[in-house]
Amino acid sequence: MKILFIGDIVGKGGREAAMALTPVLRREYACEFCIANAENIAGGNGLTKNCLQELFSRGIDVCTAGDHVWDQKEFVTEIEQLTNVLRPANLPACQPGRGYGVFTTENGHRIAVLSLLGRTFMTVGANCPFEAAENIIPQIQKETSNIIVDFHAEATSEKIALGRFLAGKVSAVLGTHTHVPTADQQIFPGGTAFQCDVGMVGARESILGRAIQPVLHRFRTGMPARFTVVEKGIRLHAVVVTLNDEGRAVGIERVMRDLP
Ligand SMILES: [Fe+2]
Ligand SMILES: [Fe+2]
Predict the structure, then answer these.
(1) Structural domain containing residue 154
(2) Residue ranges near ligand 2 (ion) with Cβ within 5 Å
(3) Distance 67 CA to ligand 1 centre (A)
(4) Ligand index nearest the alpha carbon of residue 117
(5) Which ligand is nearest to the Cα of residue 115, counting in written order?
(6) Cα–Cα distance measured from residue 10 to residue 232, given in angstroms and rounded to the nearest whole number
(7) What is the 22 CA–ligand 2 centroid distance (Å)?
(8) What's the 109 CA to ligand 1 centre distance in angstroms?
């Protein structure tokens, strides 16, 4: 089975591009399930139920989040009504929402998605992602061997370390958060597809989806600046992972597509 995994969708422009391109890519690559990181869909910061429902209407099955999960205050209550939206599983257990779920694909296969947050160079206080994975994955394996991990983290070293830690235990460890796709797609021994970062759905003429000038100003002067999202000239980054009947990855392919 093939799974489409889309990187961080940024703002309205990213959302519209994901809505236009997801059905096309699903068809083109014959994917029966689609996961997207949606932590930046609401104006670049956080998620809302309305924005998520737009994505779900166009072929995205499950959305993951990250360090921006609570940026929109209404989402703290909304997340409880959304069974196919995940926040990092290694956030404190008292936080709302869930960190993993088991879902059914278009063709009736069971598939689990687990969201984890990194700790290196990250400001959000998360528990150890390795320990969380170690505790959660055996529970998931009772239900399915098709397991996709979204590791939302900054450092490539931490991402590769988690990928190696979970090699042979899950179907794929795919990185999000940096908004820049990496060219290191690989299948680790044991059949775990890996890529440090899938990238984003955001503007080509931008700095990680934000307008160039304010970001430059902040870097050069150290002064605060409002980072606006660029909504035009959107490029989508994703990967297509192919799994065999045992839930082992047999292929991983990078996808890059400009919104016409
Ligand atoms: Fe992030
Ligand atoms: Fe992001």
Answers:
(1) 2-258
(2) 8, 40
(3) 5
(4) 1
(5) 1
(6) 11
(7) 18
(8) 29
Residue type at 134 in one-letter notation: E
For the entire predicted model, the pTM comes to 0.98
CA of 11, nearest ligand number: 2
Q: Tell me whether residue 68 is one of the annotated catalytic residues.
A: yes
Looking only at the bridges linking them, the beta strands covering 147-152 and 172-176 are parallel
Measure Cα distances from 77 to 65, 74, 84, 97 in Å: 15, 6, 15, 9
The number of folded domains in the chain is 1
Judged against a pLDDT cut of 90, whether residue 213 lies above it is answered with yes
Amino acid residing at 3: I
Residue 187 binned pLDDT confidence (cut-offs 50, 70, 90): very high
**For the segment 193-210, what is each residue's pLDDT rounded down to a tens digit?**
999 999 999 999 999 999
Assess whether pLDDT exceeds 90 at residue 260: no
Which CATH number is 233's domain given?
3.60.21.10
CA of 32 relative to ligand 2 center, distance in Å: 25
